[in-house]
Specification:
The chain contains nine helices and six strands; from the N terminus they run E-H-E-E-E-E-H-H-H-H-H-H-H-H-E. By secondary structure, the chain is an alpha+beta fold. The chain has a domain of about 110 residues: Glutathione S-transferase Yfyf (Class Pi), Chain A, domain 2 (Up-down Bundle). The strands form two sheets. Strands 2-1-4-5 form a four-stranded mixed β-sheet, covered by helices on one side. The chain has a two-stranded antiparallel ribbon with strand order 3-6. The two termini are about 20 Å apart. Bound molecules: glutathione. The site of glutathione (GSH) has 14 residues, from helix 1.
Length: about 260
């Protein structure tokens, strides 16, 4: 039974999962859509990625990676040893929550029909992302991959940093030389090349993409970061007009249900 991945080339979470599947050399089909209504499997948060493996549907990228490791143990994404596993999860979670919050909130202004970006938000993004990049620089100064061997932490960080750079949240050559070295090495790998090609293809067909620019997925950590920086940008109105989306519309559905 082959795997299907519900995917969009712009989502860092989809890109992480795709890179992990390619790292494991697994056969898979891409179901590409930017419109959650077209997903062939139900994710109550109306989010991608979603992995379909026969009758099994897995949502949420760290859960997908953990599933892949159990189903296809070769070329593991997580170490078996407990402390090392906790360390990889810590870094992956930092990418999925903290880094994603900054990059996606800024990215929402590029893709969604929102009021003008509040003054100072870009500076706050640069300040906060700098702290994450400094930690990463310390880590990568003495190694090739974030937690030793390549794995979930690398595939989680790479797409966010690449997207951040396209949004003017760049690494600094003097401050983060080893993160830049690692980015270059990740991009040169087959998984990085496939990721780059997918992003280029998406952009070259921008006019035909089915992105809904009216509805925004703020997500928990993104909202937290926005509010921590004192910006509510009329969220109440956005929710009232159903411009924000999430699981609330179909509360009774279970994760992982086939449509
Ligand atoms: N925690 C989820 C986050 C997934 C997520 O936020 N996906 C976004 C794209 S980055 C999404 O599907 N948003 C709805 C949309 O783009 O239509 C994961 O790790 O998979």
């Amino acid at each position: 039974m082959s795997l299907s991945l519900c995917y969009t080339a712009l989502s860092p979470f989809c890109r992480k999962v795709r890179m992990a599947i390619e790292y494991k050399s697994l056969a898979f089909t891409l179901v590409q859509t930017d419109d959650p209504k077209k997903l062939p499997a139900w994710n109550p948060r109306a989010e991608v990625p979603v992995l379909i493996d026969g009758d099994t549907v897995v949502c949420n990228s760290p859960d997908i990676l953990a599933y892949l490791d159990r189903r296809f143990p070769e070329r593991p994404l997580y170490p078996a040893e407990a402390r090392s596993y906790a360390e990889v999860r810590d870094w992956e979670r930092t990418a999925d929550t903290h880094l994603d919050a900054i990059v996606t909130v800024i990215g929402n202004w590029k893709f969604a029909n929102l009021p003008p970006m509040p003054a100072g938000l870009m500076d706050a993004a640069r300040r906060d992302i700098g702290v994450v990049y400094d930690r990463l620089q310390q880590k990568l100064a003495s190694r090739d991959f974030i937690c030793g061997g390549i794995g979930a932490a690398d595939f989680a960080f790479y797409p966010h940093i690449a997207s951040g750079s396209a949004l003017d949240l760049k690494l600094e050559l003097r401050r983060h030389p080893d993160v830049l070295r690692w980015m270059k090495a990740m991009r040169a790998r087959p998984e990085g090349q496939a990721d780059l090609a997918a992003a280029r293809e998406w952009w070259s067909n921008r006019d035909q993409q089915d992105v809904d620019t009216e509805r925004v997925n703020w997500g928990t950590f993104r909202l937290e970061w926005l509010l921590a920086n004192g910006r509510a940008i009329g969220l109440r109105t956005q929710f009232a007009r159903a411009k924000c989306f999430g699981p609330w519309a179909r509360r009774t559905m279970r994760y992982g249900t086939r449509v």
